């Protein structure tokens, strides 16, 4: 039997390297992304996001999108992603604010930015993205991106033409928006979204702050009479996040490809939400259900002054929250909106 020569070992090493390289090249990541909503606009947007990621990674990342409750209960979405039970989630900062107070800023501070373009500018150029990602990372999550949602408007059964008209009204609201309304004498009330129609119909509440397209989708146009502008949040954002350990374990190339692809669906979502909102308001007016009230600028200034005070209250929760609030104030000032 002839002894092995050194070149034989070299050949084996090369072949082994080829095999290992081929396995690395062939590796794919199959992830599940659950949203906390069932709305067609959200699901279609997430499916487009998944498609863009798959194309950008040349098929290495394959994301399957699920709607609310399909994998885990809505309220368990964050915990499921944290633990790695599922890989990705989509929800809104307002839902996460109890454990991540910085997510209030991510969602959209009441009477802050006035368009998706402004929201994205604040997010990418005023430090919001980096600081909010830090907060998510502390909870074992990686925040991939934010995306536009439908504008949150005040819809009421009684007219609100000035801040004094808030007094005595019972309005479904939450968080910072509820604090603003309370300052003007309203009674914030928290009821499930599915119960709004009946509550408005029976007079249990006099109004709600909710996405404008629900005038059609939830038929709220049948039980409210007034839509008040400007919107409370124009627009709020939702986000896509994933398990932090999983993200950190990815090759840098794939991280970069996901990042590059993660915003390409935003324009489609924004256009769709705007169209659905405009259509809903148009039908509301043209069919004679009610009217749209646009508050005078002097009244908006009064509301914004109180709104900025509630921002300051949020800023007291942590140094990071304070930095985020100050960044938002600077952004608004740079856009010509100052509160004396």
Question: Would you write up a description of this structure?
Answer:
It is built from 15 helices and 11 strands. With 340 residues, the chain is an alpha/beta fold. The strands form 2 sheets. Strands 7-6-8-5-9-11 form a 6-stranded mixed β-sheet, with helices on both faces. A 5-stranded mixed β-sheet has the order 2-1-3-10-4. α8 crosses α14.
Secondary structure: elements and pairs:
Layout: H1 6-26, E1 29-35, H2 40-56, E2 61-66, H3 77-83, E3 88-92, H4 93-96, H5 103-107, H6 116-125, H7 128-137, E4 141-148, E5 152-156, E6 170-172, H8 175-183, E7 187-189, H9 196-202, E8 207-211, H10 214-217, E9 226-233, E10 237-243, H11 244-248, H12 252-261, H13 266-286, E11 291-294, H14 297-315, H15 319-334
Parallel strand pairs: 1-2, 1-3, 6-7, 6-8, 9-11
Antiparallel strand pairs: 3-10, 4-10, 5-8, 5-9
Helix pairs in contact: 2-12, 2-13, 7-15, 8-14, 14-15
Quote the beta fraction. 15-25%
Oligomer: single chain
Annotation, overall tally of beta strands: 11
The end-to-end distance, rounded to whole angstroms, is 94 Å
What is the string of SSEs from the N terminus onward?
HEHEHEHHHHEEEHEHEHEEHHHEHH
Shape: globular
